[in-house]
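Can anyone check this?
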Amino acid sequence: MIDDSRRTALVSFGVLTVGAVALAAGPSHAATTAPIIPPGAREASELMGRLRRTPRRRDFKTVPMILEHPNFWDDDALKEIIAYRGTRKQVWDNTKLAGPWLNLMRNSINAQIFSFGHKDFLAVSATHGTAHLALFDQPVWDKYELAALAGEKFKTNTLIVPKPAPAAFAESEDPKSVFGADGDTIPALQERGVVFLACHNAIWEVTAKLIASGKNPDHASHEAVAAELTNHLIDGVVLTPGIVATIPELQQVGFHYAAL
């Protein structure tokens, strides 16, 4: 027998507006959309509010190969994630741009919230490999011809383009809503509270490939091109000094590891 009152409470989603948008000295900053989270998800809503108020530095001129000082990554935002007090949290080791990584995270969120009733569930994308290309905005895709690294499926960065969704966010059974396949985009998942972590090491390696292939229109140094790529991370992303080193930090505080 289905408990209709419990299901109604879970599916009655609303848009929670949390805090002012953080300012940053560059084209990227904290997420500009309000998360769509379950009523009563206090830990999740508080985290989203703190992350939205935490500035991201995006005014780099050069960056070193190995980051030794927290000023070079989003240290305050990363510490907020590590300190998350919710009891259900998962870190996804996402490496393949053309893989089903966004779909699987969406399915995990749906089941955790609707099936198991864990309203404060937090999903984090530990993004590196070719998947990291999705974290760059379209202007830098165009300038550095990142489609050449992305593969035939991606002529542009389609994963950062929001898809239309019904205004009634509570319609969780609507496949055209953010709860269905149309929600398999980075903006849609960010609206639902997913945090996307960026990797400095991946940025450095992408830079090496660009320079080696002659896609360096400004004839800039490795350090300068890596800085420009960093400055063009999409809104809401949290830059880490390196994903493979950050995953153990998250596991140490109870994040469950998932990989494709």
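Reply from J.R.: I decoded it. Residues 209 and 229 are 13 Å apart (CA to CA).
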